[in-house]
Amino acid sequence: MPLLYYWTRENYVRNMDSRDWFHLNQGSPLLREVTEGESLWAFTRNSRGAFVLVAELVITAKGLNSPAWTERYGPFRVWGSMTESAYFDAERGVEVESLLRTLSPKIQAARLGQSFQGHAAVRRLTVEDHLRLCAFARGLPLHPRVHPDGRRDVARALVDEELSVELALPEGRPALPGWLSEGPPPPTWTQSRVYARDGALAQRLQRLYEGRCQICGWDPSSVYHRQLCEAHHIQWLSRGGWDRFDNLILLCPNHHRAVHSLDATLDFADLTWRFGGRREPIQLNAHLERAA
Predict the structure, then answer these.
(1) How much is the pTM?
(2) How far is CA 287 from CA 209, 282, 291, in A?
(3) Is 57 exposed, middle or buried, given 0-12, 13-18 or 19+ CB atoms closer than 10 A?
(4) Residues in contact with 67: Cβ distance below 8 Å, sequence separation at least 6, in sequence order
(5) pLDDT by residue (tens digit) across 43-99?
(6) Euclidean distance between CA atoms 223 and 53, whole angstroms
(7) Which CATH superfamily does the domain covering 3-159 fall into?
(8) Where are the domains of the chain?
(9) What is the CA radius of gyration of the chain?
């Protein structure tokens, strides 16, 4: 069952700026009915006031949010594939309202946005509707921030982003004193985004679980006498997550890498991690709440 979602322009602009991509939080229970592998299409208004298609999320997982996330964004969440999903450039997009009004059931409201309010912001599509949107989207320009090389699969670089912290440096290269100006040029400096992290939260997590992985229970201190497990943000900072204690989990290096490499998701319905078709429950938990 493919879906259609109305993304208000305000939220669209904010999410693009914050790089809050490849997932959707909403109050509509339809997000629990979509089948993994199917598409969730999104449209919004651009700066000229035209309705344009802005995303196709190819769903890889669905689940319930944490209580804190539910209060702000709604109880339901779907995740889109980082290699198959696409974000289209709203400002270079093609008007899509005339097509949307022909989808089943037809939209009768004078203003298109009036038919997408509250839980109705998400609507079911037929397979025929989905195929028509696929044909319409063919050739639409991709958003340069999400797809800098003009391809769907380049966004995969986000997977490793939070496994390393880089310094933010100005673009170009610094001016050199005259006596250093001869010889080969220095390396070009690049600019990377840095996410603020409160180290005290990670240490609190280490103390609470005595340095053990919450998924497999591995205790490195008993073997190596060191804290080798790592704090991981359940909702990634690069996807709009909060640097809060209830958004952290302690993982061994193997599970931490697996979460990023497989883009694993945590379903708060049963506190189970989903690694593709494999599910692994949290074994140690004293701070995360299940969804109601």
Answers:
(1) 0.79
(2) 10, 11, 13
(3) buried
(4) 268, 289, 291, 292
(5) 999 999 999 999 999 999 999 998 888 888 889 999 999 889 999 999 999 999 999
(6) 54
(7) ph1033 like domains (3.10.590.10)
(8) 3-159, 199-281
(9) 22
